[in-house]
Amino acid sequence: MIQIAGKELPNIPWEEKPQGCQNVLWRYSGNPVIPRDAIPTSNSIFNSAVVPFGDGFAGVFRCDNKARQMRLNAGFSPDGIHWTIDHDTIKFKNSPEGLEHFDYGYDPRVCFIDDRYYITWCNGYHGPTIGVAYTFDFKEFYQMENAFLPYNRNGVMFPRKIGGEFVMLSRPSDTGHTAFGDIYLSRSRDLVYWGKHRHIISPSEEYPWQSRKVGAGPIPIETSEGWLVFYHGVLNSCNGFVYSFGAMLLDLEDPSKVLARGGNYLLSPQTLYECVGDVPNVAFPCAALTDSATGRIAIYYGCADSVTGLAFGYVDEIIAEIRKNDMLKQI
Amino acid sequence: MIQIAGKELPNIPWEEKPQGCQNVLWRYSGNPVIPRDAIPTSNSIFNSAVVPFGDGFAGVFRCDNKARQMRLNAGFSPDGIHWTIDHDTIKFKNSPEGLEHFDYGYDPRVCFIDDRYYITWCNGYHGPTIGVAYTFDFKEFYQMENAFLPYNRNGVMFPRKIGGEFVMLSRPSDTGHTAFGDIYLSRSRDLVYWGKHRHIISPSEEYPWQSRKVGAGPIPIETSEGWLVFYHGVLNSCNGFVYSFGAMLLDLEDPSKVLARGGNYLLSPQTLYECVGDVPNVAFPCAALTDSATGRIAIYYGCADSVTGLAFGYVDEIIAEIRKNDMLKQI
Amino acid sequence: MIQIAGKELPNIPWEEKPQGCQNVLWRYSGNPVIPRDAIPTSNSIFNSAVVPFGDGFAGVFRCDNKARQMRLNAGFSPDGIHWTIDHDTIKFKNSPEGLEHFDYGYDPRVCFIDDRYYITWCNGYHGPTIGVAYTFDFKEFYQMENAFLPYNRNGVMFPRKIGGEFVMLSRPSDTGHTAFGDIYLSRSRDLVYWGKHRHIISPSEEYPWQSRKVGAGPIPIETSEGWLVFYHGVLNSCNGFVYSFGAMLLDLEDPSKVLARGGNYLLSPQTLYECVGDVPNVAFPCAALTDSATGRIAIYYGCADSVTGLAFGYVDEIIAEIRKNDMLKQI
Amino acid sequence: MIQIAGKELPNIPWEEKPQGCQNVLWRYSGNPVIPRDAIPTSNSIFNSAVVPFGDGFAGVFRCDNKARQMRLNAGFSPDGIHWTIDHDTIKFKNSPEGLEHFDYGYDPRVCFIDDRYYITWCNGYHGPTIGVAYTFDFKEFYQMENAFLPYNRNGVMFPRKIGGEFVMLSRPSDTGHTAFGDIYLSRSRDLVYWGKHRHIISPSEEYPWQSRKVGAGPIPIETSEGWLVFYHGVLNSCNGFVYSFGAMLLDLEDPSKVLARGGNYLLSPQTLYECVGDVPNVAFPCAALTDSATGRIAIYYGCADSVTGLAFGYVDEIIAEIRKNDMLKQI
Amino acid sequence: MIQIAGKELPNIPWEEKPQGCQNVLWRYSGNPVIPRDAIPTSNSIFNSAVVPFGDGFAGVFRCDNKARQMRLNAGFSPDGIHWTIDHDTIKFKNSPEGLEHFDYGYDPRVCFIDDRYYITWCNGYHGPTIGVAYTFDFKEFYQMENAFLPYNRNGVMFPRKIGGEFVMLSRPSDTGHTAFGDIYLSRSRDLVYWGKHRHIISPSEEYPWQSRKVGAGPIPIETSEGWLVFYHGVLNSCNGFVYSFGAMLLDLEDPSKVLARGGNYLLSPQTLYECVGDVPNVAFPCAALTDSATGRIAIYYGCADSVTGLAFGYVDEIIAEIRKNDMLKQI
Amino acid sequence: MIQIAGKELPNIPWEEKPQGCQNVLWRYSGNPVIPRDAIPTSNSIFNSAVVPFGDGFAGVFRCDNKARQMRLNAGFSPDGIHWTIDHDTIKFKNSPEGLEHFDYGYDPRVCFIDDRYYITWCNGYHGPTIGVAYTFDFKEFYQMENAFLPYNRNGVMFPRKIGGEFVMLSRPSDTGHTAFGDIYLSRSRDLVYWGKHRHIISPSEEYPWQSRKVGAGPIPIETSEGWLVFYHGVLNSCNGFVYSFGAMLLDLEDPSKVLARGGNYLLSPQTLYECVGDVPNVAFPCAALTDSATGRIAIYYGCADSVTGLAFGYVDEIIAEIRKNDMLKQI
After folding, report:
1. Which of A298, B331, E317, F103 can bridge A289 by disulfide, Cβ–Cβ 3.0-4.6 Å?
2. Residue D98: Cβ-neighbour burial (10 angstroms; 0-12, 13-18, 19+)
3. Cβ atoms F139, F149 nearer than 8 A
């Protein structure tokens, strides 16, 4: 049986799979779990990151305001379902010289390593790149150097050092609505200087849901079968991009090696709250909670760039699905 | 009174026009008649073709799977409403040398001529072109030569030879989300070699619903007034393509001659299932059933590239509408 | 307290702000106030202009027909809610030589000055430009010279002469789905020759809801604080344009001077009828009614290029919001 | 015989047609008549306007500097061949409030009416539009109101009032490398307010050299056959725009009426200095000198956006060529 | 030693390879062999086809006129160097009903089979497609059915039937400056109906000179090693397309099989007359003469869409070069 | 007087400024100093890097071959004028695992630090990024890790460590003909991991020659006034990109600080070999030689992506020109 590494999380938000559901993932019946107007100033709350924190949960949320400016706010929840999000945006401290100005920030991820929570996000610095900060309490946030040169998005750290190095996935992009996107892996000894960049996966025309671009989603989940990485894929229809998500497995010791990659999406935008909103047809995962005791996984994903959804699955079913339609075996 | 050629079809799926409806076509109250998940592996089922078969109906369905790959599946129904679609995709037999590999297939049409059912579809062969096959039983399908060079879509055969030749409409296109599209007519003596290509209609900026491209829909319906051809038209808004459909009349003996062409659409995407889905704002007809006894017509059309809808009308009202707003008289 | 100039309008359509609503504007509970099929020939009715007229109201409506041709129709209402729209399109009289042919017309505004109602609209004359006409009774419409050279849209007159000159805002554009758009102001002594063109505002990347283009909406409202101008702003997402609207204040005596400009939108497309339709995600205001006795403002706005919505607000709250997030103070 | 209105110009720059030349226009053997580095600060000198002045000639020149900024400089010549161009750019005086800042200026025309020389040029004011100024001596230049709203280029005045009104041709455009362009005519009583805009000609796909856009060139030449207007036309090849020029005749009394329009170009870029330079393949006329005594016409045209060329022709041959291939007779 | 099939051609135009030339092809020292103004009405003469005829040579020439309209003219030469081109364009006779109107024609090829010369060209019929005609004397030309549906270019026939069928290569395209282009092969029994379409080659990103599109050039040359097919390839630089040409070998009995394909170009635009002109950087071959006695090949190719060039080579050196850098062996 | 740091170079290639030349830089009279066919397999040789080596000079050259594949070759010269370029391409040794495959390489720079010559180039690794290697003898080249994630170009190292760190300029880009480009600076302690990325300069619409993108050219030259950095700037005309070059000064101790930036270009493509070739209108500097004794600078720059040019200037005149038109003082 497939094991998830790490702690048990008995209070993981959860609903059992509905009767008759033939899919590996199923949606929370109370979706959207976070509405667009959860704070007075927000236009939308989506593409956000949550982690276990104390007896409950904490998170960093993308809260676009009513100027449609992209901002980050911290928040807390006792159960992962009901969230109290700060009305004030995060103000980073100790920013390196030259990075003090906050232009915009979006699509955060939160990764606990050792003693602190690292936040990576798409940070506006003469274009989008990967900002890095850390917090101990989700109240004080300390900014570090940007990891990479612009233009980059979807920087996702691994939850422990591998081979003595921090490891991050990212998706180099351009200045606009990027029409391409591969996932790369980079390494660092100190979270300041990064190198040893390696290519992980490209979009695939053979699997149209992920034919235009791909980008890592939640923090990789360590399992007995490898790192489980949920990632979004984009199809470019005549009426715009459609963001779905699937998953792959990376080698535990050398995560630049792909072990298996699912050809099918696990969840695509099909509900009204995923299909209708500021950007129609988007399901974009940024965080996952796991319970090593039961193999349960709860995925938070942005819906239509407007609200936040929650979906559930079991690690063994997810990995079985990856292997059943493994792209590496079909090529 | 206008006559439809061909057999009576007393079991044609049907609902009477709702009270107060001022339009020529009206939607089935149980729409979508085929949901997106009618088979376990399907992402969506739409742009599909049905015909009378035995005591009931059979069809070839576009069933995109959860990799969003475009596939064709056969199906059967006793009443045209409740469908049993094969879980396995169609595997073509006797494919000509060089055409054995099935890359992708979509938007099928089915046309009964003489003793068999011909299927034409958009067949991936180094780009989209018109595939041709036939079946006697919707179980075994025999592939013939592609009708044309790439790049082409919406190949629609006439239901009988005209002047001793098979006749097909098609819409030459390009490799992507084609931004143009005229309807042409071609002829063949043997369904292998095609020629005598003639231009039928172009999009018209004067009639914006059909200003970007036009393409034939169901198999032309032989009536006492000419061939009744439903066709889709595309408007290019700032937020993408909108697919509606209307109709025209072609000369019975020389179908390259347009007798009348309706300036107004007959049905445009206005319901949630037509406006919301994998491709918003699409109503795309691929098949029609007719009852010569009553003049009833039932049209199957894809909705938002996600599900299949059904709409109804009377042949005389449809042709009256074409003539009332005949583009040929207004230019 | 802020005063609106002009008459009292005790029968202004109105609903009180819902409990708990934290926004400055709120929607009419019966929205869409005008459905897409209010007349038999219409595909959609939106982006339309209404004014007090007699004991009730009159208006000029954009009624796209079922060829998706853009047409203008007059209409009347006793209460601003229930509208009777002429089934026949407006036929302009006395058109200047060379402008007799009506190609297309859309997005009308109606402005009462002195003794008559002026209509400005986007008039097709070898491309879109600003048509001008007047009526006394909304039955006979007399066409004047186009105000400007093509290509132009959203011509909006001020409701009185300023400095002895008629004044009009407009948004020069191009021949298609224009990707830019600033608001300019022009002056005329006779409504035939226009000049003294001045730039008013540009889109702003800092305020993404209005980062792509901006265009004036209803006739400017004279207040004790300046001319209150609602205007639409456009954000260009990867899936198309999103039209929201906000407001600014112009100097009463020299309206080419911007006094304040709100950084936040006042209303963005968030309901189904604003997000789903012929053009998803559009809220486009073209008219406002005001009651000087109470400071009430009722705004008519097009929804998804399909139907017409109605929203309400108080002038003092609106102007307070403009000043609270005044872009001029933040730059 | 065809008469040119206006003065004799015995010192018009001139060379006889080379032996064997079968074209209506022929190039000056000393081309480029003005090199790109005629002043120390210039990157290029082209698309410039000259007129008879005193015993010789004066002009306004587009002198892009070595930052490639577009600037205007005055210049003088005794013979139209040898030019002394001011090293300093023109500084306009008496600019209307709000227009004082010179952003950029290019493609000037100079038109003598009554007692002064009017300069029109593409003036940067939140985008390109038509600037207007006048001078008596080519030393002091007085700026007036811009004629039109942005975005516009190639404003070309008629050399006398017609029906009591000033008349100007222009080519409305957009903010960039405009891919469209029609010629329109506007009228004014005072050079401040303009109106009565009429469409003159569009590009024509049937005549590919002028299939993408057209724009007026030199000041129209009054002849006994009508106003002779040279205009540039643009073909869009796979490797960019090609600017050639041809001519048309407008009605003397109502210049919004086109009497004849030549289907063939008169001169297209074929020499090295026309085909190689900052913008390859450009021949762009901005001025013409005429001698009523002989029917001689000397045309100054920009070459490859780098240097200035000179070409010669006879009015009767030019008009004969227009009529021989008159587009109005061929459609 | 490699043999060319067919007749000896002792009067083939020829120059020996210059000393020190390391390339397989070399240019005629008198290039351009046909200037742009060889007839009074021509803007350019290029992309043209010549064949042995009588004691000398005849051809069909693309003669764009001074409206830049694309026209075809016949011509004759005693030596292949000095050409007399008809001043009048070709008027086709016996055109099938519906194809009588000549819209435009370009890039002709001429192929002798049995008793007549077949001309194929890009024929404007609601878009570009492959026109077919024949002549016995280059004076009377008889038009047949277009071979294919639009949109297509570069239709090139094989000089004899293969397997009892006529065979043609073509490059399906779109309506504009097509950014893609593969070579396909089609077959016909009667030159009216075509079928059995097979894909031959695609562009290759690995060989950038042919990375954007490829298209057949002269009539395939039958050799003892296979059909020698010269074809153009296009590289898309930041400043436009660059057309070079190379060659491949097809199987004699089944020409849908590629035996070898040269990775290097044989000739790319490097001279002034190839790099400067109406379309810079084009070398586009449309015809070749061969002498079976000596293995000499003379290639006519369009230069910069302006003039016609001539290049020479030996069949054995050309085929050796194909094999030395054979793409099929390197992949 | 301004001093250049570093060694004297008495054999620097040199010609005195021509009489009458008013520009700061002047071209070598024997340009192109390296022709496109200097080796048998080359299509073009340009954008190349040279350094003093032994008694003469060595370099790394971009030698595109006749498949138009981008390759790097080493070469040697006794005088910097006459070059012997290896016929074989460089084969890198000791490539890190995963980087062994050479896909393509272009636009090299060579930088001597301490004891070896570092080569940086645009290295194809799932897109363009910055490759790094070193050599002692220009015979053996040892590859290191790529400096950055794709997509990046124009990586240019400083010739000594600053603050204990290696420093590199680069221009992040995208996958194609990038339409944007800023210069950034990054730092490294070990040439493996890079960080502390800072923005240096952006393109400027106010200075059109550098309005589209900018990128560093030769290795920065240490002077008593700061680091002298030549950089290319791109203007986007309607007919494509134009590459010119200018210069700026960076702070010696903190090179992320710009001290002065010249508004004018120093050299723009104006000669035939710069304007005509595989990519017209390109002057692209990649290397400079300096003589500290005399202040002479010799710049090697690619011409039209076809050949290599050489230009000369004096350091004091160049810096005086930067300061005379300093953009920082004019904004």
Report:
1. A298
2. middle
3. no
CA–CA separation, A21 vs A2, rounded Å? 22
- In order of start, what are the domains of chain D with their CATH numbers? 26-330 (2.115.10.20)
Average pLDDT per block of 10 residues along chain A, 331 residues long: 94 96 96 97 98 98 98 98 98 98 97 98 98 98 98 98 98 94 98 98 98 98 98 97 98 98 98 98 98 98 98 98 94 57
Closest CA to E92 of E52, E119, E65, E61: E119
pLDDT range class, residue D331, cuts 50, 70, 90: low
What residue of C is the nearest CA neighbor of D96? C196
Q: Which residues of B touch A27 (CB under 8 A)?
A: none
CB D58 within 8 A of CB D75: yes
> Which amino acid is present at D254?
D
Name every residue whose Cβ is closer than 8 Å to that of residue A114 and which is 6 or more positions away in sequence: none
Q: Which strand ranges, in their side-by-side order, compose the sheet holding E72-77?
A: E42-53, E56-65, E72-77, E84-85
Question: Among D238, D265, D281, whose Cβ lies nearest the Cβ of E177?
Answer: D238
Residues of chain B with pLDDT under 70: 331
Q: Degrees (nearest 5) of the Cα angle F11, F17, F18?
A: 130
Q: Parallel, antiparallel, or unpaired for β F26-27 and F307-314?
A: antiparallel
DSSP letters spanning B174-191: -SSS-S---EEEEEESSS
**Type and span of the H or E element at D201:** strand D193-201
Q: Which residue of A has its CA nearest to C266?
A: A66
Contacts of C145 in chain D (CB under 8 A): 195-197
Instruction: Report the distance separating Cα C51 and Cα C35, nearest Å.
Output: 19
Q: Which residue type does D246 have?
A: G
CB count in 10 Å sphere of residue A156? 27
Nearest alpha-carbon partner for C82 in C63, C107, C56, C106: C56
Percent over 70 (pLDDT), chain E: 100
Q: Quick one: DSSP state of residue E95?
A: P
Across the interface, whether the CB atoms of A281 and B278 are under 8 A apart is answered yes
Listed residue (D125, D130, D140) closest to D93, CA to CA: D140
Nearest to A234 by CA among A182, A278, A276, A308: A182
Phi, psi of F255 (to 5 degrees): -70, 0
For residue range C176-217, what is the model confidence (pLDDT) as tens digits?
999 999 999 999 999 999 999 999 999 999 999 999 999 999
- One-letter amino acid of D33: V
Interface check E186 vs B, CB under 8 A:
yes
What DSSP character marks residue B241? Answer: E
DSSP state of E220: P
Instruction: Tell me whether chains D and B touch (3+ CB pairs under 8 A).
Output: no
Instruction: Tell me the average pLDDT of chain C.
Output: 97
In this prediction, residue C331 carries a pLDDT of 57
Handedness of CA D277, D281, D285, D290 (dihedral sign): positive
F307 close to F83: Cβ distance less than 8 angstroms:
no
Q: Where are the alpha helices (DSSP H) in chain E?
A: 272-275, 315-324, 327-330
Query: In Å, how far from its chain's centre is CA E165?
Result: 21
pLDDT score for A331: 57
Provide ipTM, 2 decimals. 0.96
Asked if C292 has any chain A CB less than 8 Å from its own CB, the reply is: no
Residues of C in contact with A70 (CB under 8 A): 208
Dist. CA F96–CA F77, nearest whole Å: 31
B203 within 8 A of B186, measured Cβ to Cβ = no
Q: CA A101, A102, A104, A110: dihedral to nearest 10 degrees?
A: 140
Q: Burial code of D264-275, b = ≥16 C-beta within 10 A, e = fewer?
A: bbbbbbbbebbb
- pLDDT surpassing 80 at residue F187: yes
Three-state secondary structure call for residue E321: helix
Instruction: Give the DSSP letter string of A154-172.
Output: EEEE-SS-BTTBEEEEEEE
